[in-house]
Write a structure and sequence with these properties.
By secondary structure, the chain is α+β, with helices and mostly antiparallel strands. 49% of the residues lie in helices and 11% in strands. The protein is built from 33 helices and 17 strands. The strands form four sheets. It has a nine-stranded mixed β-sheet with strand order 7-6-5-8-9-12-13-10-11. The protein has a four-stranded antiparallel β-sheet with strand order 1-16-2-17. α19 runs antiparallel to α20. The longest helix has 19 residues, at 542-560. It starts with 6 loop residues before the first helix and ends with a helix.
């Protein structure tokens, strides 16, 4: 035995982490592990020039990663709207737990639906038939055949009643999962208003403020090749009194229809949709529910005659969805079924977040909840009582931290629907459009805290903090407040942190009280005080480096005091790692404070002060303030040239960063001037084969293309490739990015087929070199989709962009520019695929977001406006 874990142990470890891998995927992981070494440190932000768009905006700084959780040792509070009074805090983003676990298993369960059939509308050239026809007739005729397309459309209907607020994030994740999985020909998503006085009404979008209504059959395909899935907890009044039955029946008579129930099956008896077990046999693949044969799996037919139209009710899990898939494909399944249109006995009142009203005896209410709820739900309620204020993202984080592997959506649903919580009555908490705030009813919080051991309640924040710093990249980002003595936001009175412990980072390493002159500061030496910290830094494990670095710096602080050079230099190193971990604003703030502390001790012309100013300018740019970053480097360059000389390497570096951040800010002509002035200096000082010189040539090629010089840009990239390949080898990041750029500009020059071929060839190596989550591979995957569409394969473009959107949605907030741009591309090619109304509608909805986030004059915003006009003209 060699002691290495085998496939079984690896599979168990991945399963425990929530990753469901097939035997083939496990084998590939082990094969790769034998052939690659440990991950290298992430390249500096300027290692590869940002890839220029054809109709895309400049991407973010190369190497920039999504925001990381706040540093350990900081108190983090829920953010719900705007609260003015309280202790100073800074807005941050924290990773919330995923609302829909097991997404890969769900897609795998639905995979049999991913079949293709000949289109009845669209045709494509048949090369073999065309060759045979020309050979037979001697005429240059073209033979066509039906184009292959996905089998079914999907209409996802989301109940957006009051009780469904708990499932808003789940609905969004489910929609993104279905849209990005490539399972369906096209997908539509509607809202379902079950509170309308005239009965349930279909809306164009779920959870929206619009009062517009959609026709009940608007989501059904004309050719019958479709499926309707209704996401609802079936708690609302329309489900209880039978007013939903006509709508369900209408859908079920047209195509396969089912209800997706987010609550676990043991809670269904308290909802408004009674179900019973039935064996269902489909008469044909894709047939409507009315064609199914429904029988009791145990009783004879005469003892259990069929009632109304059978509508399966499914748990949101792989087993139920796999059975549903088998049924739709023409097979047999045993499922819980609601009989739409059948006479029903009035259902007993079920749980509702606001239904119970204030009870005179909260102890009695809590006793009822404890008797009916699962032990996990009651434990979760106790830990939630130790946090204030409460939002859904925070509640999911607490649940994941407290229940670990036992966490499931059902437990939080029990707490939310158990009458213990209510919406916060505080005015203005939703003014900022953030997560809704919830509070325990009067007296419940105290009773719940009394039910927990004192130590357990105190440990809630520490447990959540541990999960935040070690969790996998799952779930979307949620707004939070980080305690900060120099912050710009307030905390509500009585707020209790949900994560972290101890004093905030800024207060912990406060300005040195024993200030005096120092000769020098050993920047970069903090890692040398701890072998594990040195290993984390060398491997680019920045989150681990931050946590370990704080511990090491605390030991130095205790041993030497805040004014010693090793402590001051350690503050610089730690701030840099915090920025690399994904918190550039925090890094810049820490470095600015360190600069203020050292200004009187080192003097403004000290080399370390110049290095500090460069770091502050860099993190300003990586915080999204590109123009301010260029200005900071300009001010620094003036002093560097005065002290060091115009051709000093530090001066050349500052010039390069000025051009870099000008380009990111859209000042392309000014950036070209900077790089054109820089290149001869680098050739003279560094030589033609130095990486910085070659990178400047790459930046000039990129900016020339952005400014409209397509042919010149292509020539510059082609001239650069032999130099970078000779100097750095064929697998270097700059070499691979240059190959991909040549492919892209070949397409811009008029040959989309060649662009598609060239980018497809280099993309696997590019992804391996940068890592799958790096921005550069994501950008070229978008370009691959673009040239796929431009080559005539709109369906392929939509599928590629759908897969990319699904991946980006796991780690980007909805307002991230890359995510917004990908949404725009997906909408455009959806319209070009044939669903013009859907694609155009999505682009129109996206435009205000683009103008708000990117700006009115941003290149991508301008492209989106032109795309809307183009699609409107085509109509």
């Amino acid at each position: 035995m060699n002691g290495r874990p085998g496939p079984d142990r690896l599979g168990e470890a991945l399963a425990a982490a929530g990753i469901d891998a097939t035997a083939r995927e496990l084998a590939e992981v082990l094969w790769l592990a034998e052939r690659i070494g440990p991950p290298a440190a992430r390249p500096a932000v300027s290692d590869v020039p940002p890839p220029p768009p054809s109709r895309l905006p400049p991407p973010g700084p190369d190497g920039e990663q999504p925001p990381a959780p706040p540093p350990s040792g900081s108190d983090v509070y829920a953010a719900a709207g705007t609260v003015a009074a309280g202790v100073a805090a800074t807005p941050v983003l924290v990773r919330s737990a995923r609302a829909l676990p097991g997404q890969r298993r769900i897609v795998r369960a639905l995979r049999p639906l991913r079949r293709t059939v000949p289109s009845l509308r669209d045709e494509e050239p048949d090369e073999q038939a065309t060759a045979d026809l020309v050979a037979e007739t001697g005429r240059p005729d073209l033979a066509l055949r039906p184009r292959r397309e996905r089998w079914l459309d999907l209409t996802l209907v989301v109940d957006d009643g009051l009780s469904m607020e708990l499932w808003t994030d789940l609905a969004g994740e489910l929609r993104a999962l279905f849209a990005g999985a490539g399972l369906f020909r096209r997908m539509r998503c509607h809202g379902l208003d079950t509170r309308h006085p005239d009965g349930p009404r279909l809306k164009p979008r779920p959870f929206g403020s619009s009062t517009a209504l959609a026709a009940p059959r608007s989501g059904l395909p004309a050719d019958g090749r479709g499926m309707v899935l209704v996401l609802s907890d079936t708690v609302g009044t329309a489900w209880r009194d039978g007013r939903m039955d006509p709508l369900l029946s209408a859908w079920a008579r047209s195509c396969p229809t089912a209800v997706l129930q987010p609550l676990p099956q043991r809670l269904w008896p308290g909802t408004g949709l009674p179900t019973s077990a039935r064996r269902l046999q489909a008469d044909r693949p894709g047939g409507p529910n009315t064609g199914w044969r429904a029988t009791d799996p145990l009783l004879p037919l005469d003892l259990a005659p069929p009632g109304g139209v059978p509508v399966p009710v499914l748990e949101l899990g792989p087993a139920h969805l796999a059975a549903w898939t088998a049924l739709v494909a023409g097979g047999t399944a045993v499922l819980r079924v609601a009989e739409a249109g059948a006479p029903r006995v009035a259902a007993p009142p079920g749980p509702h977040p606001e239904a119970a009203g204030p009870a005179p005896d909260m102890a009695a209410r809590l006793a009822l909840f404890r008797a009916a709820a699962s032990p996990e739900a009651f434990l979760l309620a106790g830990h939630l009582a130790a946090v204030s204020p409460l939002t859904l993202p925070v509640m999911r984080l607490v649940q994941r931290a407290v229940l670990r592997g036992r966490a499931a959506p059902a437990q939080l649903a029990e707490v939310m629907l158990g009458g213990l919580l209510r919406r916060s009555p505080v005015e203005g908490v939703d003014e900022a459009g953030g997560p809704r705030r919830y509070d325990f009813r009067a007296g419940v919080r105290e009773l719940l805290l009394d039910s927990l051991p004192a130590r357990a309640a105190l440990d809630t924040a520490a447990l959540v903090g541990e999960v935040m710093h070690h969790q996998e990249p799952q779930g979307r980002y949620a707004p939070a407040l980080l305690a900060d003595t120099a912050g710009t936001r307030g905390l509500p009175p009585g707020a209790v942190a949900f994560a972290g412990a101890g004093a905030p980072l800024l207060a912990r390493f406060a300005p040195a009280a024993d200030g005096g002159p120092v000769a020098d500061l050993p920047f970069g030496a903090l890692a040398g005080h701890d072998p594990q910290l040195a290993a984390d830094v060398a491997a680019g494990r920045w989150s681990e480096a931050v946590a370990r670095g704080e511990e090491v710096l605390e030991r130095l602080l205790a041993a030497h005091g805040p004014g010693r050079p090793e402590v001051l230099a350690g503050r610089f190193d730690l701030a840099e790692w915090i920025g690399e971990a994904g918190a550039p604003h925090n890094a810049r703030r820490l470095l600015r404070q360190l600069h203020a502390d050292l200004d009187g001790r080192l003097g403004p012309d000290h080399p370390r002060m110049l290095r500090l100013r460069a770091a502050i300018a860099e993190w300003t740019g990586r915080s999204g303030e590109w123009t301010q970053a260029a200005d900071g480097y300009r001010e620094l360059l003036t002093d560097q040239e005065r002290l060091l000389g115009r051709d000093h390497p530090d001066c050349l570096h500052s010039r390069a960063r000025i051009g870099f951040w000008l380009a990111h800010g859209g000042s392309w002509d000014a950036a070209v001037d900077v790089f054109a002035d820089l290149l001869p200096r680098q050739l003279r000082v560094r030589g033609a084969d130095h990486r910085e010189t070659l990178r400047t040539r790459a930046n000039l090629a990129s900016l020339t293309g952005r400014s409209g010089g397509t042919d010149t840009a292509l020539r510059l990239w082609q001239e650069l490739l032999p130099a970078v390949r000779r100097t750095f080898g064929p697998d270097d990041q700059l070499t691979l990015a240059t190959e991909a750029e040549i492919g892209h500009w070949t397409g811009v020059a008029g040959d989309p087929a060649a662009a598609l071929r060239m980018i497809s060839a280099v993309l696997p190596r590019l992804t391996a070199a940068f890592g799958p989550a790096h921005e550069t591979p994501y950008e070229f995957r978008r370009r691959l989709a673009q040239w796929t569409g431009e080559s005539g394969d709109a369906e392929g473009a939509v599928e590629l962009l759908g897969e990319l959107l699904g991946e980006l949605g796991r780690w980007l907030i909805p307002e991230h520019p890359t995510f917004l741009n990908c949404r725009g591309d997906h909408a455009y090619w959806t319209a070009r695929l044939g669903d013009r109304e859907e694609g155009l509608g999505r682009l129109r909805e996206l435009l205000p977001e683009l103008e708000s986030v990117l700006g009115h004059d941003d290149p991508y915003t301008r492209w989106a406006r032109n795309a809307v006009l183009e699609l409107e003209d085509d109509g």
